[in-house]
Amino acid sequence: MKSRNNKISVVLVVLSLIYVIYLTYISNNNLLVGATVSKGKNGDIVITNVDEFSMASYSGIEKGDIVKSINNKKINTNEIKMNKLKNVSSMIVERNGHNLELKMTLFNDKNFTTYLIPLIFYIVCLFCCFFILKINESKNLLSAVVLIIFLLSASIAFISAGGSA
After folding, report:
1. Nearest to residue 48, comparing CAs of 32, 61, 30?
2. Separation CA 49–CA 18 (nearest Å)
3. What gap in Å lies between CA 77 and CA 102, rounded to an integer?
């Protein structure tokens, strides 16, 4: 019973680490682009909506763009599910009669505050949790568990905002 609080804390840290790895995977693999599409008059795929603060808006996709290719492949209209773009790393769009190549990348100026700063904050909170666990080995205080829960909650909330953006 003496080390029960520390075991609970370790389980919470491990679960939060798994969740953060999952969010980072989603962000890095561009599973969530943030653009809605529909078929145009000529059978073209047209961008109908771009979510604010999304990977699509950061990459320069605009409403009304005609999608020519995704990931250097011709578009198959059957691949687009629920009118959402998914798994896009690059795309060529037609805008005002000109073809533009747009790259979806996590590491640019606009994504710095959305992904990198929350990830750094989470890592700092993890270090704090490990120090608290080390100090709490002998004392076994409930307040240490509460502090770890607070740190993990704050850092996960911060990093989750980037995962949903």
Report:
1. 61
2. 32
3. 20
How does residue 6 score in pLDDT terms, banded at 50, 70 and 90? Answer: confident
Q: In the block, which residue shows the tokens 């790895």?
A: 21
Residue 98 is classified by DSSP as E
Helix (H) and strand (E) counts for the chain?
5, 6
The pairing of strands 90-95 and 98-103 is antiparallel
- 55, 79, 23, 33 alpha-carbon torsion, rounded to 10°: 10
Domain 35-103 sits in CATH at: 2.30.42.10
pLDDT tier for residue 32 given thresholds of 50, 70 and 90: low
CB 67 within 8 A of CB 75: yes
The answer to whether residues 63 and 50 touch, using CB atoms and an 8 Å cutoff, is yes
